[in-house]
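Translate sequence into structure tokens.
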Amino acid sequence: MILSLVGMPGSGKSTVGRQLARRLGLPFFDSDHLIEQRLGCSIREYFAREGEAAFRDAEEQVLAELARGADAVVATGGGAVLREANRRHLREGGRVIYLRSTPEELHRRLRHDTQRPLLQVADPLGKLRTLYAERDPLYREAAHFHIETGRPSVPTLVNMIVMQLELAGVLPLQP
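Result follows.
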């Protein structure tokens, strides 16, 4: 079974995913890194050269393959839920966990990040609010579990996820 993490850019999908995978003894995959390996360049370069539709096609292929793969924890890109096919692949492939962060919380975490092209705009908080309004319903649709990220530490978030999975019978209860 695949445990997929979805959420806004900066919500902690990769960081939490790595620790969750370690805790559960599962492999960890970051879909954006797999896409970059397949494309042979950065997502930013590919996006600029080929456009969003071509990138989303590559993303859909990678997510479909991961959903059919062996047990793992997968951190998805923030826009992975934009395609209905991706939401379906993720839900059918295992359990989807939405790491929910408010735009204000994301802005606080990301305000000094120069590596995220979508935030290199005049009003990054406004951009995050717009993206959140567009994507939150899609994350909710895709997810089996919702975790409010707020300010807990990464180990606390991992514990919250494990507890939810145990209570739902997805994971055996830990002694």
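Note: The longest strand covers residues 94-100.
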